[in-house]
């Protein structure tokens, strides 16, 4: 199968390579279960860097065209996504709607609808500006975001700039490409949300950075890493918080290597009782730390507005890219979010969600604590999701399948790991969006499934 890469095209080499390999798989030129050449071999044959070949493979892995076998290599998947039949609709139980524990969505309970309507109504009273709005966002919105970060995270952004974007992916793209040069090598905390890994993989080569019971390990940062992406406040799905010493070690790595540490502005902690810890941005040098955030976890994922907190040295390059026509939220949307922030609506909503989630976490701990010590429950003290680690003889895919038969959809923990990592055996449960009655139904289905797998209540601690 001939492959032709054009260095003069605006499309990056890794995208060209991924497109041509994907086409070959769909057309049957690379048949199912064919072993792919190693990235080193492919790079040598095509005269490209190994990072380019690795980035193309990561894209195909994420899209399901190829699969990695630990210790064996990379193979074409049994069925290409384009030609795979649509899976049958999952069954419902007794006519009841399916309970989805896969989606990490905020609770709609007690949504501040009156404040939401008022903010948009007041924003609509402003006439559209005669000039093009500032490329990096309205000054009043950027100031409001900085003030909220100061209030909620204790951050004083003397040497950083807040950049407003139309979406989380846009914020990542602007930040990752602002440094110029070839596509970066990104060390991502492993495990991590698959959508975050895919979003980063669109702009660089993503390598796993192993996390343990204290979060990402700075001593294992790959030598080729340009950027380290971590979730220090709450790893999703393990729920662990990174100690201050590791945050300082990450800042030291960035200072010594000239790299960049990227962290979320909000990690979905939702537990004000925990002692605050300084963000990496607070302990590191301004030129080597950055944040990306949105208000999806507090307000709604439908709000197409995100932001990046970037070192001042990158702000000019980002502003230039945005001035060239990069997407931006509407003028009215920016005014409405400014109103929600300055009125205290966002702060009050975060406090109410914290109380709601604590009650739900208590239900989860009560229901699943009976299966200790055969299982381990992670992340049930913070956030709105938890991970149930299973013993070796109870496979996660079997539990997920049993839950599906009972009308509950859950996620195998393996989906959160890098394709080349060896995942832990467990099930991830996201429940923040469920009301109390529905959550109890889901937990009854889960305990029933665990009982079927011989994890009886007699194992309770």
From TrEMBL:
Keywords: Aminotransferase, DNA-binding, Pyridoxal phosphate, Transcription, Transcription regulation, Transferase
Record-level Gene Ontology MF annotations: transaminase activity
DNA-binding among keywords: yes
Gene3D superfamilies per UniProt: Type I PLP-dependent aspartate aminotransferase-like (Major domain), Winged helix-like DNA-binding domain superfamily/Winged helix DNA-binding domain
CDD domains named in the record: AAT_like (cd00609), WHTH_GntR (cd07377)
Domain of life: Bacteria
Ranges where the HTH gntR-type domain occurs: 11-79
Ranges where the record places region Disordered: 76-96
Annotated family: In the C-terminal section; belongs to the class-I pyridoxal-phosphate-dependent aminotransferase family.
UniProt name for this protein: PLP-dependent aminotransferase family protein
């Amino acid at each position: 199968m001939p492959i032709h890469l054009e260095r003069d095209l605006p499309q990056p080499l890794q995208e060209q390579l991924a497109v041509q390999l994907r086409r070959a798989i769909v057309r049957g030129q690379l048949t199912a279960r064919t072993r792919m050449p190693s990235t080193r071999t492919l790079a040598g044959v095509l005269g490209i860097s190994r990072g380019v070949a690795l980035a193309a493979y990561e894209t195909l892995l994420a899209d399901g065209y190829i699969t990695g076998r630990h210790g064996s290599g990379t193979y074409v998947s049994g069925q290409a996504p384009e030609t795979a039949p649509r899976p049958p609709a999952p069954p419902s139980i007794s006519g009841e709607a399916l309970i989805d524990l896969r989606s990490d969505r905020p609770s709609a309970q007690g949504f501040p609808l009156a404040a939401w309507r008022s903010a948009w109504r007041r924003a609509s009273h402003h006439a559209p500006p005669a000039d093009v709005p500032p490329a990096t966002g309205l000054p009043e919105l950027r100031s409001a975001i900085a003030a909220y970060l100061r209030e909620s995270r204790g951050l004083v952004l003397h040497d950083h700039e807040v950049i407003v974007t139309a979406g989380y992916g846009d914020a990542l793209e602007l930040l990752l490409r602002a440094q110029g040069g070839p596509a970066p090598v990104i060390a991502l905390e492993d495990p991590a949300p698959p959508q975050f890994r895919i979003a980063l993989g669109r702009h660089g080569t993503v390598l796993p950075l192993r996390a343990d019971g204290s979060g990402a390990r700075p001593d294992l940062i790959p030598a080729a890493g340009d950027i380290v992406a971590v979730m220090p406040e709450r790893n999703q799905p393990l729920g662990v918080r990174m100690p201050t010493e590791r945050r300082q070690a990450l800042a030291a790595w960035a200072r010594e290597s000239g790299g960049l540490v990227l962290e979320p502005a909000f990690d979905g902690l939702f537990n004000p009782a925990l002692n605050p810890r300084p963000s990496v941005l607070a302990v590191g040098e301004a030129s080597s730390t950055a944040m990306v955030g949105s208000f999806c976890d507090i307000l709604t994922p439908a709000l197409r507005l995100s932001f990046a907190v970037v070192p001042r040295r990158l702000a000019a390059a980002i502003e230039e890219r945005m001035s060239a026509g990069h997407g931006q939220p509407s003028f009215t949307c920016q005014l409405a979010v400014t109103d929600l922030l300055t009125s205290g609506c966002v702060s009050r909503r975060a406090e109410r969600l914290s109380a709601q989630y604590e009650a739900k976490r208590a239900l989860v701990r009560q229901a699943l604590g009976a299966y200790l010590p055969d299982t381990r429950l992670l992340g049930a003290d913070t956030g709105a999701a938890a991970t149930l680690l299973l013993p070796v003889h109870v496979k996660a895919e079997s539990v997920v399948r049993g839950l599906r038969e009972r009308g509950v959809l859950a996620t195998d923990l393996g989906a959160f790991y890098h394709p080349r990592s060896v995942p832990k055996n467990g099930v991830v449960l996201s429940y923040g969006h469920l009301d109390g009655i529905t959550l109890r139904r889901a937990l009854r289905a889960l305990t029933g499934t665990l009982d079927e797998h011989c994890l009886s209540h007699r194992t309770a601690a």
